[in-house]
TrEMBL record:
Species: Devosia subaequoris
Cofactor(s) of this protein: Mg(2+)
EC nos: 2.7.3.9
Similarity remark: Belongs to the PEP-utilizing enzyme family.
The organism's place on the tree of life at top rank: Bacteria
A Pfam family of this chain: PEP-utilizers
Protein name in UniProt: phosphoenolpyruvate--protein phosphotransferase
Length: 755
């Protein structure tokens, strides 16, 4: 094996000195490739940069024809250099020309070189370019030399990220790291937001890359690892960390990785090659991220997030950087995060927050629900966006399309500025409709209500003209709290909600936690299928103190006014009767204490468990009203996890089987003369709302932003012919057409606004 001259530490010191010299970009690059060639005893050293058009451009060389610099290009995946860039893996060959991927470029004069070693230049897991050394003699580049090249590439990546290369770049192209990017995610809310990136959990920026004393750096690494392991163990030993919680599983994964000898050995090896401890963490995580990003297995990608978080945790210890507090936001801030809970979102200044982008999460996640309530544009499942953006980057969210434009070009930005102006005009148009009765052209009155869960969004009742709140999610108060809200805290929240609503009714849904609605201070055993497990009214009836306290709080908050209570996830009628008994006992208790009770209490059942479809004639006489929770009902009817896009998108919620199930509820409510309201996400989408009205549903509850578009559609709608067409389809089938296609045809016939 041929060793390098002086070793990688000598080369790194030379590179650091070169980077500090007052040189032009091209002059600096030329000197760097020369230093690498000399240190590696190579005849050739070349550096290729990946441009935003997918081409790898030769930026500097020592040994190849200098005329080929900025002239020679290879496509991603083309030739040995393109292969390295595409796979983000080193490649060592003693006879490069015999490799099937070899691509000859005559202008370079490289035909006389046989040996080849190329490594990817990575930053944040992204391939920025390729660093290559070549020799005329056949030579085997060993692991030590490959490691030395990878270490050198780490420094080169930082140079690319922090230096000005504009004078070297061809017009119309850019270095890949900072090029505009577009992400196709999942829409959480409507609306468009333009602003600046604020990282919810920003990466630690490494500034010290080169070790002065490798032994000292290894000692720093050992101390940081020990400190991190102790902190993880302490969190695992915390009293609130039950053995079966999801949080504990995550920390157990962290502990496993933190004690993995292979990971630690790679860190030590990077330090031995001349990197500082923090640069070693960055280097190893770059390599790991580059490999794992190319995996399709979702389990492996989840582990990548764990490793990213662990590496960032270790970097915070090494750099003595605390977890960032929620600082003052810039105007038009857009949060970017892997994931976050509703409580974390509510900690930010909502006056400056315009949008949220998540790498994970589904449209029914509770952070998405809170974003809708606050009128914040939100997009989820924007894969790898956290590693590809930096604080202060320009960013645009297209809510309806679920698209994110990072560092948009000027023409894209102007397009969205125009869209925002049009959207403002549309909002003004909807505002002009707020006082108009929501009645179809053929005289059918449709009641439009808000879904809510935060006092902050209740003033929007005045803006939209909605007639009340069809669903107030009381669990959000529990989810954002660090402990169980006391009786008076609940009373204050419910009373404030009723005060803001005024004469308009508010339907308070009893606590619906469990499943994906995690409340860490309420311990429960782990479940294989939590959506169908110990949650909602099942939990409330099993913990009567919790249920009684909430019902008492609602009764006290009413202060003599009418009160509406909704019981979630009723599976059988007897559960509803049990809940009514608790309500009656609390009413009697208040009367005996001489306290005011509501002048009228109405209690309704939420239809979201399919078994209740077969007890409709039993539950209706017991209820004052019923509401439909389409999110869970559709999930259970289709056996498709609503948070799993691979299956949930396969089942149209207004497909014939689901629409028939919904009509069962509407028909039963009509037989028993009980009002029925749709409270799920379906009601806020024009096409879905049209389907609901077509089966006879006249009460729709939705997010505030949906009221205007739905009302405009209603005002232009002649409902009876659509009802007749859907009734026939439900009875005899749609003749090969989907319900959605049938409704689209009617929307086109009547020229309905469906945007």
């Amino acid at each position: 094996m041929v060793t390098t001259i002086g070793g990688p530490r000598v080369l790194l010191r030379q590179l650091r000195e070169t980077m500090a010299e007052p040189l032009a970009s091209q002059e600096r690059l030329d000197k760097i490739v020369g230093l690498i060639a000399e240190n590696m005893r190579a005849d050739v050293c070349s550096f290729y940069v990946l441009r935003d058009d997918g081409a790898l451009e030769l930026f500097a060389t020592r040994g190849l024809n200098t005329e080929s610099v900025h002239l020679t290009t290879l496509r991603l995946g083309e030739g040995l250099v393109g292969l390295i860039a595409a796979e983000a893996e080193p490649l060592s060959l003693d006879d490069a020309t015999s490799h099937p991927a070899f691509a000859y470029r005559p202008e370079t004069g490289e035909e006389k070189y046989n040996s080849f070693l190329g490594v990817p230049v990575l930053r944040a897991g992204q391939t920025l370019g390729v660093l290559v050394v070549q020799n005329a003699d056949r030579r085997h580049y060993g692991e030590d030399e490959t490691e030395a090249m990878l270490t050198t590439a780490t420094i080169l990546a930082e140079m690319i990220a922090t230096s000005d290369f504009d004078n070297l770049i061809k017009p119309g192209s850019d270095i890949d790291l900072r090029r505009p990017r577009m992400f196709n995610g999942v829409s959480f809310t409507d609306g468009i937001a333009l602003g600046k990136v604020v990282l919810h959990d920003p990466r630690v920026v490494v500034t010290n890359f080169i070790a002065e004393d490798t032994d000292a750096e290894k000692q720093r690494l050992d101390a940081a690892l020990a400190s991190m392991r102790v902190s993880i163990d302490a969190m695992l030993d915390h009293g609130d960390m039950q053995p079966t919680s999801d949080h504990r599983e995550i920390l157990e994964t962290y502990r496993m990785f933190a004690n993995d000898r292979g990971w630690v050995n790679r860190l030590v090896e990077a330090i031995d090659n001349g990197l500082s401890a923090e640069a070693a963490v960055e280097r190893v995580q770059n390599d790991t991220r580059a490999r794992m990003q190319r995996q399709t297995d979702p389990y492996i990608r989840d582990r990548l997030h764990d490793l990213d978080d662990l590496a960032n945790r270790l970097l915070r210890v090494l750099t003595n950087t605390n977890q960032p507090a929620h600082r003052d936001l810039p105007e038009n801030a857009i949060l970017v995060a892997r994931n976050m809970g509703p409580a974390e979102l509510l900690e930010y200044d909502r006056k400056k927050l315009r949008g949220v982008v998540l790498e994970e999460g589904g449209a029914t996640a509770h952070v998405a629900i809170v974003a809708r309530s606050l009128g914040i544009v939100a997009v989820g499942q924007a894969q790898s966006i956290v590693s590809m953006c930096e604080g202060g980057d320009d960013i645009i969210l297209d809510g309806p399309l679920g698209q994110v434009h990072l560092r948009p070009t000027a023409d894209i930005e102007q397009t969205y500025i125009d869209k925002v102006r049009i959207s403002a005009r549309r909002r003004a148009h909807y505002a002009a409709l707020k006082d108009r009765p929501s009645v179809t052209k053929d005289g059918v009155e449709i009641t439009l209500l808000h879904n809510s869960g935060l006092v902050a969004d209740l003033p929007m009742l005045d803006d939209t003209g909605a007639t009340g709140v069809g669903l107030f999610r009381t669990e959000l108060q529990f989810m954002i709290a660090s402990r169980l809200p006391r009786l008076q805290e609940q009373v204050d929240l419910y009373a404030e909600a009723m005060e803001i609503a005024g004469d308009r009714p508010v339907v308070f849904r009893l606590l619906d936690i469990g499943g994906d609605k995690v409340v860490p201070y309420l311990r429960s055993a782990a479940e294989e299928n939590p959506a169908m497990g110990y949650r909602s009214i099942r939990l409330g009836l099993d913990r009567p103190g919790l249920l009684r306290t909430q019902i008492r709080a609602l009764l006290l908050a009413a202060r003599g006014r009418p009160l509406k209570i909704l019981v979630p996830m009723v599976t059988e009628t007897f559960e509803f009767r049990q809940t009514k008994q608790v309500l009656c006992k609390e009413m009697d208790r208040l009367k005996r204490a001489g306290q005011a009770v509501p002048e009228k209490v109405e209690i309704g059942a939420m239809v979201e468990v399919p078994s209740l479809l077969f007890e409709l004639d039993q539950i209706m006489p017991e209820s004052d009203f019923v509401s439909i929770g389409s999110n869970d009902l559709v999930q259970f009817l289709t056996a498709a996890d609503r948070a799993n896009p691979r299956v949930s998108k396969a089942y149209d919620p207004i497909g014939l089987p689901r629409l028939r199930a919904l009509r069962l509820v509407v028909d039963a409510a009509a037989r028993h003369n009980k009002p029925v309201t749709m409270c799920g996400e379906l009601a806020g989408k024009p096409m879905e709302a049209l389907a609901l009205m077509a089966i006879g549903m006249t009460r729709l509850s939705m997010g505030p932003a949906s009221i205007g578009p739905i009302k405009e559609m209603i005002l232009n709608l002649e409902l009876e012919p659509v009802k007749a067409a859907i009734s026939e389809a439900l009875s005899v089938g749609a003749n090969g057409h989907s319900v959605r296609n049938l409704l689209t045809e009617w929307a086109d016939k009547q020229n309905l606004p469906m945007g």
